[in-house]
Amino acid sequence: MSLTADLLMGFSLFAFVTSVTPGPNNTMLLASGVNFGFTRSIPHILGISCGFFVMVLAVGFGLGALFEAYPVLYSVLRYVGAAYLLYLAWRIATSGPASNDPDRKGKPLGYWAAAAFQWVNPKAWVMAVGAISTYTPLQDYFTNVLVISAVFALINAPSVGVWAGFGSMLRDVLRNPRWLRLFNVGMALLLVASLYPILVEHYPT
């Protein structure tokens, strides 16, 4: 079987749904949009998509098989990811009031940090493994992995960007420091809740 138009269309729907639905990336982008605005969140958006592109390539070219052969490596990665998610949750919970001043205390997650985060993001691993195992035909495998990775990244960027955009729309609503603090604490708790699959599930399988 080759990568037909129908298969690519089905994969595009998979990429959109998995990218736009809630998860650690989108929770952080929603909070970033509220606290820093859409423009300052763009490096975060691009870091997510580029980091995920590299991850899908790596899974397609054998990293997933390495984790299957040596499960302890993935276990270590999961718990490193859990620790980093707790740190990010703390950063969100303690974010200051929304401001247009780029010099105010605090700054959004940068491009490289967002790209690196994909490697400890459990939802990203599920998405990458699903893309390769379900939608990548063995015929012309090398080319198909490149196409799947590129299409996923192109769909992912605007899909996750919606969350930053929605957050920026809420900035005026959340000018009140009390409401902003409640929002940030709520987002931090949601991020902590996303640790559940890291602690009780086993990826990749």
From TrEMBL:
Transmembrane intervals: 46-67, 76-93, 145-167, 179-199
Record's subcellular location: Cell membrane
GO biological process, one term: cysteine export across plasma membrane
Keywords: Cell membrane, Membrane, Transmembrane, Transmembrane helix
Gene Ontology MF annotations: amino acid transmembrane transporter activity
UniProt key word Manganese: no
Pfam families: LysE
Cited InterPro entries: LeuE-type (IPR001123)
Membrane topology: Multi-pass membrane protein
Keyword Repressor in annotation: no
Entry coiled-coil feature ranges: none
GO cellular component: plasma membrane
Protein name: LysE family translocator
